[in-house]
Structures are given as structure tokens and as C-alpha cells.
Amino acid sequence: MTIAERFNRFRFRRAVPAVLHTPPVQVGDDDFVLLSMVHHRDVLPYLLALKSFCRFVKPRRIVVVADPTLDESDRSTLRQHVPQIEIQDARSFHTPGIPQGGTWERLTAIADLATQNYVVQLDSDTIALRPLPEVLAAIASRVAFVLGTEDGQVISSTAEAAAEARPTVGPGVHVQRLAEAHLDQFDPAGRFRYTRGCSGFAGFAPGTIHRELLHEICRGMEAHLGTRWSDWGTEQFSSNLIVASAPGAKVLPHPKYCHPGRMTVETVFLHFIGYIRFTTGLYARQAREICRALN
Fold it and tell me: CA quadruple 61, 62, 64, 65: dihedral positive or negative?
């Protein structure tokens, strides 16, 4: 981390505690479950992400999958600011045949909830700036969505995705690319579809994800990737595969929904992904502005 990034991180850490002095979040009438996995270090950023989002979209239920680092003080803070919050321990989603860690517990929780509910997965390092019409439309029409990474991004066949990924595979390649390169072998019949989205913000339509599907993906990909299937990144790959394969699935328009490095005047939603989180002071500025707006 550069000196400038350390300074911007310091500025954010100074700004984000103001979220503790904003009004609590109440559940609403929009028919979906909002789910996040939260670590101890994420409590304040999570509240910022949640409260910014709930200005524009009103979930019927708010669920947190609690990482083991989340202590009683953290849980008390969450209940104070989200009185109707449902906190479920990550360990309760440990399942034989499905990797542990790497946010797999989050995806397993989504699988359980989405049997009967529309579920939106929201990362703690996101901020909603303005109304999110595409998200509301997806929820209302029960259509899955995923946060894109490029302009004009589309959902493709698994054969097309594998052909695109295969030339990038070499020694030390990231497991997500490796998994993508094997998609045609995993899915020779073409049952699935794929897009290289970001699992940090995604919508799962009812009935499009379940534990049996997770087991099918894990068995099939582990047969091709071996022990690398337990690497960090396989959950995001699986999330992308599941969302893209849902009937009518959409990639949110980019850069209307994007990371801060691609932000324009049209942007309504930001994901402050790790490598770019503190390259500027934007995260701190947005934290201050949102906390003022919430009051």
C-alpha cells in the first residue's frame, strides 16, 4: 500500500464512524431478502453500505451471515442499527462437499433462502449513490442480476466463456480464470451460461439456486481443478455461473453500476473493490456525504 493509499484509508476510518450517529434501518415492503456476510472489520462499512442502499430499496428481510470474527459487541451494534436484523453464524452453513471459507458460507446461505425468496447479495464495501431502477425492476420481475465489470458486458455460453479464458491460462493463473477455461468440459451439453461478473452485488431469483446445484458445480469443477477448487475465487465463479444461467438474467449496465475507477456522472452504485478502494479519497468523501444525508 502506498503512502497516499494509507492516508486515504486513514481518512475513511475517520469518516465512517459517523454512521453510528444516523437513524436505524427498518425493513420495508419490497419483496426480497437482503443478505451480506460481515466480518468484525466490516461492521461500520457494512452499516454504511446498508443504509446507503436502503434509502432507495426497502428489503422485507435483512440477513447477516456472521463470520467467526464477529463478536458480541459487533452483534449488539448491528441490532441497534438494524432492529429486525437476522444474524446467522457462518459455521451453520458448513456443508460436506462444498468448500469452507472464501464466502462459500454466504453462497450456501443464499441457496437456502432463495428456495422461496428473491435474495440480493450486498458486499460491505459498496455504496448506493442514487435510485437503482434496474435493481428494483429485476426484483419485481423475479429476474436475476449481477454487477458487471466492463461496458456492454453480455451473458455467453459456457463454450464461448471457456474459449475466451483458455488463452490466458498459464502457471500461477488465478483460479477463477482456470475454472472459466474448463467450463466447456464441465458443461459439454451447454446447460449453463456464464458472465465474468462480480459477486459483490447480485440478485438471485427464487428457485434458481439450491444446495444440490452447489454440489453439482463443486463435484464437476473439482474433477477438473483438483485441490485448487478450494482456492479463494471459486465462490465468485460459481455465483456468476448460477446467476447467468437463470432465465432472463441481466448484467447491470456499466458504468452506471461500477467500481470507482470507472465512475461517471451516470453512476448510481459503486463497489470499492480492494485493489482500488483507497487509491483516491472518494470512499471517505462518500462516507461523509452519505452520513450527512442520512440525518
Answer: positive
Q: What domains can you pick out in the chain, each with its CATH number? A: 3-155+199-210+249-294 (3.90.550.10)
Note the pLDDT tens digit of each residue in 243-260: 999 999 999 999 999 999
Residue ranges of E strands in 98-228: 119-122, 126-128, 145-147, 156-157, 193-194, 198-204
Partnered with residue 66 across adjacent β-strands are 38, 89
What ranges make up the beta strands (E) of 14-144?
30-38, 59-66, 86-89, 119-122, 126-128
What would the grid cell of residue 35 be? 443478505
CA 142/CA 248 separation, integer angstroms: 9
CA distance 26 to 54: 9
Q: Is the pTM of this model over 0.90?
A: yes
Cα–Cα distance measured from residue 68 to residue 257, given in angstroms and rounded to the nearest whole number: 31
Tell me whether residue 230 is exposed, middle or buried, using C-beta atoms within 10 angstroms of its C-beta: 0 to 12, 13 to 18, 19 or more.
middle
What is the C-alpha to C-alpha distance for residues 9 and 4, in angstroms, rounded to an integer?
A: 9
Q: What is the pLDDT of residues 147-184, one digit of tens each?
A: 999 999 999 999 999 999 999 999 899 999 999 999 99
How far apart are alpha carbons 266 and 257 in whole angstroms?
9
Is residue 119 within 8 Å of 204, Cβ to Cβ?
yes
Cell of 119: 435474495
Give the phi and the psi of residue 30 in degrees, each rounded to 5. -70, 130
Q: Where are the beta strands (DSSP E) in 12-134?
A: 30-38, 59-66, 86-89, 119-122, 126-128
Q: Please choose, from the candidates 107, 137, 136, the residue with its C-alpha nearest in 3D space to the C-alpha of residue 121.
A: 107
> For the segment 205-237, what is each residue's pLDDT rounded down to a tens digit?
999 999 999 999 999 999 999 999 999 999 999
Which stretch of DSSP H or E encloses residue 11?
helix 3-15
